[in-house]
Write a structure and sequence with these properties.
The complex is a heterodimer. Chain A is of the alpha/beta class. Chain A is built from 26 helices and 10 strands. Chain B is built from 2 helices and 6 strands, in the order ββαβββαβ. In chain B, strands 1-6-2-3-4-5 form a 6-stranded antiparallel beta sheet. In chain B, β3 and β4 form a beta hairpin. The chains are: A alpha/beta, B alpha+beta. At the A-B interface, α3, α13 and β10 of A face α1, β4 and β5 of B. The complex binds guanosine-5'-diphosphate (GDP).
Chain lengths: ~600, ~80
């Protein structure tokens, strides 16, 4: 099968193009010569199936960052049949340098000047025919976001695929040494084909930034936006989640229970109280997750995260981190795994390690599910969103404390240089695709971990057969009993302890396993929790859940990204210690104060 | 400017105030950062404008051509410019 690689600088729209080409049906692939996974998708181009590979964005081929090494190694060991070079048309003046470097590799390539819509708005005119002629490469203008020019680009790619695949030059590096003439070559190409207005028009971005990056208002606005987002998720998401829960409860009584009624009681219990209750409780969070990621996608797509980096860099520097670490912390609110991988843009290993040490404290969407459920069960409707927001503050605090404590071990003087893109707003199509992507991602995790997790919880809480279900003589009860001396001082009951153990695998399982342990779901489970716990215990439980080890996937990512088992174990150990210390302080403090 | 006239003295990018524009003269950083800055459009002779500075001694926002870039003052001190 022929292979097409997407290449270009970061933020030029490669992923957007990739999604447009593959319809979002991507999978993760492994490649010889590189250790990281790349997104690939198969599409029918002309009469043949071809494989599209989305490579990480790179600034130049000499680069020293991990991403740049990945691309170098990839190109060396897997010469693509065609390279689609994606450049940002509004920045053609400087991005041409990457194209000229790539040209020296003798790749079979087609150049796509993306974001043609923005270029037009900025008053930039590009004569792609002329440019194509002076470079001897097919060049097309297009907009990956809106689709204009896309059919032509695809057609050109189809045609270019007919050429034989070039052989990679033996001396990749040597080829690249002759960079000197690039500057004059750039000037030559640009001179006749590109016109950029001397002054950028005073556009929306400039005006918005006057407010958003205001010296004094910038930070308050940032925290205000965050607060509104999380309030919004709770206010919209919680009723949705309760609604879905009710629907699952109804479905159980109306259809699932009758269906299984012929089975032996134990099997019936396993299927209904174990698998069905557990999975339904977790699945009820799908609306919240989708909502959350839609909000995240909007924030991410607007380019506001880079603004956050600008606002926070000075403070992050005091913690031995930088603005990018802060952005990764924010990304971690979605899922810690991509945030951990996002640290690849950092060149200094120390900075990367320190960032990876703090990212797992980001309150990810899986933990959000636990907190939405528990705080709705234990707090009044007015207090619940505040309790949730306070957990976000604790999440930051845990990261800050950790960074301050360990920055001495990870000293770095990595320069902080970051592009500030203009504000952009996602299209409806982009949001739908993102939402869909999250649903499928969730379902994949569900099939991997959650079903197995809840089945195991059910078995632990019902075996040996002689024991009373969920009683102290079951395996779960015995384990809970062992750990009791450790968890009693922080107000966590044996039932919750079992849920925490499973939360180690994936935080989504926590509420699912509570459903199984109590044999209840939805409202009934909330009721049972409210009866058994007071708010101090519940909050202590949430603090512990927030801080203790990220899930198994995050641990695996920590391990593979750091390539250091000692560091990974340290990250886990530290989070356990910190979680216990924080919960202990909170729980004992609150009790001492008379709560 | 005639060829005989002396060039205006160079100052560092970090010393510019928001709103100031200047011509990029030279970059005195290590190789890796030098490469990155080149790719971001920092080439001598280009016009660079300081848009704003973050509070608490935070980064600068500068504009070169159509690209806006954030960089710390420490980095900006390694870049020299000529003010007209
Ligand atoms: N206006 C405009 N925005 C685009 C276009 N293509 C991508 N974008 C936006 O540019 C940003 C970066 O795109 P992305 O695909 O993540 O870039 P990547 O880093 O190269 O993968 C996102 O906000 C996209 O929505 C385009 O053709 N026009």
């Amino acid at each position: 099968m022929k292979r097409i690689a997407l290449l270009g600088m970061p933020n030029t729209g490669k992923s957007t193009l990739f999604n447009r080409m593959t319809g979002g049906a991507a999978r993760v692939g492994n490649w010889p010569g590189i250790t990281v996974e790349l997104l690939t998708g198969k599409i029918l181009l002309g009469a043949n199936m071809v494989e599209i590979i989305d490579l990480p964005g790179i600034y130049d081929l000499h680069g020293f960052s991990e991403d740049e090494q990945v691309v170098r190694h990839f190109l060396h060991d897997n010469v693509p049949d065609l390279a689609l070079i994606v450049l940002n048309a509004t920045q053609i003046e400087r991005q041409l340098s990457l194209l000229l470097q790539l040209k020296q590799l003798n790749l079979n390539m087609v150049v796509l000047l993306n974001m043609a819509d923005e270029a037009k708005k900025f008053g930039i005119t590009i004569d792609s025919a002329k440019m194509s002629e002076s470079l001897g490469i097919p060049i097309f203008q297009m907009s990956a976001k809106y689709g204009t020019g896309y059919p032509e680009a695809l057609h050109a790619a189809t045609r270019a695929l007919r050429y034989p695949t070039p052989r990679m030059a033996e001396q990749l590096r040597a080829q690249l040494e002759q960079d000197d003439h690039i500057e004059s070559e750039m000037a030559r190409v640009l001179q006749h084909s590109v016109q950029v207005p001397a002054r950028m028009p005073d556009n929306l971005t400039t005006r918005l930034d006057q407010l958003m990056l205001h010296p004094w208002l910038g930070l308050p606005i940032f925290f205000g936006i965050m607060y509104l987002l999380f309030q919004g998720i709770f206010l919209f998401g919680q009723p949705l989640q309760a609604g879905v829960n009710t629907a699952f409860g109804w479905l159980r009584e109306a259809a699932v229970a009758p269906l299984f009624s012929g089975l032996p009681p134990t099997l019936q219990g396993l299927l209904l109280d174990g698998v069905y209750n557990g999975v339904a409780t977790v699945a009820a969070f799908v609306p919240i997750i989708v909502l959350f990621f839609l909000f995240m996608a909007i924030v991410e797509d607007t380019g506001y995260l880079s603004r956050a980096a600008f606002l926070m860099d000075a403070l992050m520097a005091k913690m031995g981190l930088d603005g990018r670490s802060f952005v990764m912390l924010l990304m971690g609110f979605g899922c810690n795994v991509p945030a951990l991988m996002g640290t690849r843009v950092m060149r200094s290993r120390s900075l990367r390690m320190l960032s990876m040490l703090v990212i797992p404290f980001s309150l990810c969407s899986a933990r959000l599910q636990v907190f939405v459920f528990v705080s709705a069960a234990l707090f009044s409707p007015q207090a619940a969103p505040l309790a949730l927001f306070s957990l976000y503050l604790f999440s930051f605090a845990a990261a800050i404390v950790t960074a301050l404590l360990f920055k001495g071990q990870f000293p770095n003087n990595e320069p902080f240089v970051l592009e500030l893109p203009p504000y952009r707003f996602p299209t409806g199509r982009q949001m739908v695709m993102r939402g869909w992507h999250e649903v499928t991602h969730f379902l994949r995790r569900a099939t991997q971990f959650i079903v197995a997790g809840v089945v195991l919880v059910w078995l632990l809480t019902h075996l040996p057969a002689s024991a009373t279900p969920a009683g102290s003589d079951t395996f779960a009860g015995i384990i809970g009993g062992w750990l009791h001396p450790l968890f009693a001082p922080i107000g966590i009951t044996p039932e919750l302890t079992i849920a925490l153990i499973f939360g180690f695998v994936a935080k989504e399982i926590v509420i699912g396993s509570l459903a199984v342990i109590y044999g209840l779901s939805g409202e009934a489970l909330s009721g049972a929790l409210a009866q058994q716990l007071d708010w101090v215990q519940a909050y202590s439980f949430m603090l512990f859940t927030l801080i203790y080890t990220p899930c198994l996937s995050a641990i695996a990512t920590l391990r593979s990204e750091s390539r250091n088992m000692g560091f990974t174990l340290f990250a886990i150990g530290w989070s356990l210690v910190l979680a216990w210390a924080v919960s202990f302080t909170f729980y004992q403090g609150a009790r001492w104060l008379g709560y | 400017m005639s060829a005989a006239e002396p060039l205006p003295p160079t100052v560092t990018l970090a010393s510019l105030h928001p709103g100031d524009a200047a011509t990029l003269a030279a970059i005195h950083t290590d190789d890796a950062l030098y490469q990155r800055l080149l790719a971001l459009g920092f080439r001598s002779g280009k016009l660079v404008q300081v848009i704003r500075r973050a509070s608490f001694g935070g980064p600068l926002q500068v504009r070169i051509g159509t690209t806006d870039i954030l960089l710390r003052r420490a980095e900006a001190e390694k870049i020299t410019v000529q003010q007209p």
